[in-house]
Design goal:
Blueprint (H helix, E strand, L loop, with lengths): L1 E4 L4 H12 L5 E5 L17 E4 H9 L10 E4 L11 H22 L2 E7 L21 H19 L4 E6 L6
Parallel strand pairs: 1-2, 1-4, 2-3, 4-5, 5-6
């Protein structure tokens, strides 16, 4: 079974579509439902269960999740508005939820593939994928950067099945 957060968004719904095309239908889809139109993105796709994000966070605190054979968590859910200035909202969605899901991946010993952002590099003149080039210039980028830092620390300690994808300018419905 695979967990996809941000399931109703552009990336999450296309990820589920791709998994379905590979014959994978044992999917737990998770999204926040604040945009009531995005359910259309997954209405035609095959999933096993759907959870609203807060319901899912409650669910994973218990032992029922241990009864599922979870192979991977694709954490694509986040506040993606780079102009968001509510630091509490950004941290809740881009840092704290992500920490909970990383903890779940460690607990289940499964792969954790998460959405980071190229915005952590800031506005440098030249792009090189180096730690010293990271220079987040807004709160959104900083919230993504903080989780990347946490992941680096976790990788150094024990869990090697973690991948962060630094997306550049994603566009879609």
């Amino acid at each position: 079974m695979i967990i996809v957060t941000g399931s109703n968004g552009f990336i999450g719904s296309n990820l589920i579509k791709g998994l379905n095309e590979m014959g994978i239908k044992e999917i737990i889809a998770v999204d926040d439902q604040t945009n009531t139109e995005t359910h259309r993105n997954i209405a035609h796709l095959e999933i096993e269960e759907f959870f609203e994000i807060n319901e899912f966070l409650d669910f994973i605190k218990g032992d029922q999740i241990l009864n599922k054979d979870i192979q991977a968590i694709f954490h694509q859910g986040a506040c993606s508005n780079t102009m968001e200035w509510d630091v509490n909202y950004l941290y809740k969605n881009n840092l704290y939820y992500s920490k909970e899901l990383l903890g779940l991946a460690k607990r289940l010993n499964c792969q954790f593939i998460y959405a980071s952002s190229a915005s952590v590099y800031g506005s440098g003149k030249e792009f090189k994928e180096l730690k010293e080039n990271e220079n987040p210039i807004n709160l959104y980028a900083y919230s993504k950067f903080k989780f990347d830092q946490l992941v680096r620390k976790e990788l150094d300690q024990e869990h090697g099945q973690i991948v962060g994808l630094r997306y550049f300018n994603v566009y879609g419905p």
